[in-house]
Amino acid sequence: MDKPLIMTMGDPTGVGPELLVKALLEGELENRARPLQVVGDVGVLRRAARVFAAEVRAEPETGGLQRLLIGGRSLVVRPVSSLPADSLVYGRPDATAGRAMAAYVEAAAQACLTGEAAGMVTCPINKAAINAAGIRFPGHTELLAERCGVEKVVMMLAGTRLRVCLVTTHLAYRDVPGVLSGAEILATIRIVDHAFREQFGLKTPRLAVAALNPHAGEEGLFGDEEERLILPAIVQARDRGIDVRGPFPSDTLFHFAARGDYDAVICMYHDQGLIPLKLLHFDDAVNVTLGLPIVRTSVDHGTAYDIAGTGTASTASLAAAIGMAEQMSNNL
């Protein structure tokens, strides 16, 4: 049998559990390129099924797995927690739920590292809850990097028309120029190039680098980061055989990237890349961690507490994340 993809359930009080059940009921988990398994909590998934008035029956499988028959469809689960599902309140995760969220991620990562699983797809977690549980990581990316023994990873947000990769991620805009360095830009370019060759099957990825300042600095009139930091990193990357170009002004670059001139855009800061990405792929974007020794994709949205338990959350991003994880794992 092909190695499975592991899907983590995410926050038990968020939309993750019901997204998995909804995707199952809508047939989005069937006829996939690889078998799928969920790391999570059987009781919480039962509660999620009730949102859709779906009957659930559990059957034991070998290796401690459980097969949940939900609305006539089948979902294989690796039980990692046994939370009091009926007493959980949507949008109010406690430390116990926080520990469970982290445990799902660690179990999936371990299965990938040992070669038992082909890759992992994560549903959203609550960062405050996992920190309240004494697990001091800002989120999925940092936790996975530590567990995989990797110092630097790159966050990529991707859709069918546009892929953006970030040099810096979650920090105040005023802090970006001080954090940027030629070494970080070069490292980002190299990680993206390597990942696209290895995990996306491209022999020579076409990369573009966005400038930091308007008009790419206008020869220093609007800033010197382009000449001082970005261009030297591009030159060094090209000397290493990487097909990378720029720095290009952001107000024109994304037009050409979206029409297919480039395979990915290297962006200097969060909103520089995510504004055009979400304009094109608000519902179906995928969050991908590049630079790990394993395949990891994720939905590109949060726990959505405002609609958790209503069954109205879209499964488009989850379906896209599964599809991308299949693509990446099949190239390895």
From TrEMBL:
GO terms for biological process: pyridoxal phosphate biosynthetic process; pyridoxine biosynthetic process. Its cofactor is a divalent metal cation. Substrate binds at H140, T141, K278, N287, R296. It is found in: Cytoplasm. GO terms for cellular component: cytoplasm. Keywords: Cytoplasm, Metal-binding, NAD, NADP, Oxidoreductase, Pyridoxine biosynthesis. This is 4-hydroxythreonine-4-phosphate dehydrogenase. One of its GO terms (molecular function) is 4-hydroxythreonine-4-phosphate dehydrogenase activity. A divalent metal cation binds at H170, H215, H270. It catalyses: 4-(phosphooxy)-L-threonine + NAD(+) = 3-amino-2-oxopropyl phosphate + CO2 + NADH. Pathway: Cofactor biosynthesis; pyridoxine 5'-phosphate biosynthesis; pyridoxine 5'-phosphate from D-erythrose 4-phosphate: step 4/5. Transmembrane segments: none annotated. Homodimer. The active site is located at the dimer interface. Binds 1 divalent metal cation per subunit. It comes from the Bacteria. Belongs to the PdxA family. It comes from Geothermobacter hydrogeniphilus. Gene3D superfamilies: Isopropylmalate Dehydrogenase. Catalyzes the NAD(P)-dependent oxidation of 4-(phosphooxy)-L-threonine (HTP) into 2-amino-3-oxo-4-(phosphooxy)butyric acid which spontaneously decarboxylates to form 3-amino-2-oxopropyl phosphate (AHAP). Its main location: cytoplasm. The keyword Zinc does not apply.
